[in-house]
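Notes from the pairing session

We agreed to fold both candidates in a single pass and log them together. This is the raw record for the first candidate, unedited. Please don't reformat it; downstream parsing expects exactly this layout.

Candidate A
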Amino acid sequence: QGQLQESGPGLVKPSQTLSLTCTVSDGSITTNYYYWSWIRQPPGKGLEWMGAIAYSGSNYYSPSLKSRTSISRDTSKNQFTLQLSSVTPEDTAVYYCARGPSPSDFGSWGQGTQVTVSS
């Protein structure tokens, strides 16, 4: 099993909220100066950075998704969570969590999890 592991439902209905958790198995998510990101890849498209939470707890979001995205963390469980609200079929993608030295620099990745939005 990798150092970052995504988990969550593989199927979400339109208009609902998608919720995924990334469990980190090596190192603390509060360790200076790591940033913990969510990235997705829709079928046939490129990677899209969605947002990040810093070691300090500060958040960074993609402007195009900011109104629907929330990233939080549970330091007691060494996890961080993505919530994407009001999903549509266009949110169908493989979702990855990642770690890096900046919000847009990813040194370690989870294996990814497929999420399909469909009624």
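Candidate B (folded immediately after A)
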Amino acid sequence: QVQLVESGGGLVQPGGSLRLSCTASGSTFSSYVVSWYRQVQGQARELVAHINTAGSPVYYAAHVKGRFTISRDNAKNMAFLQMNSLEADDTAVYYCKAAVGWDEYWGQGTQVTVSS
């Protein structure tokens, strides 16, 4: 079992950048595939990016490709989502998920608000 804590969210102007962090504890983080999701209130949670155990391959949703970068540091039990050129439509709660086999674990989420 793994516990996840997201951090790094906040208020940023359009065109700005944020770096989200996901800190894991409780298990062998390197065994887990890590994903970032986001959710706007009243809407379904959607996949933003995904990174395999060793750091590749990675996947990006079409609407963030070229702007967001997912990475991980297994030695530090952390994963990251670098978000550049942020747009108002990126406003959401961002969640980190770690999965292995049929097991998956979620963090509590961090709010990202893009507004002028």
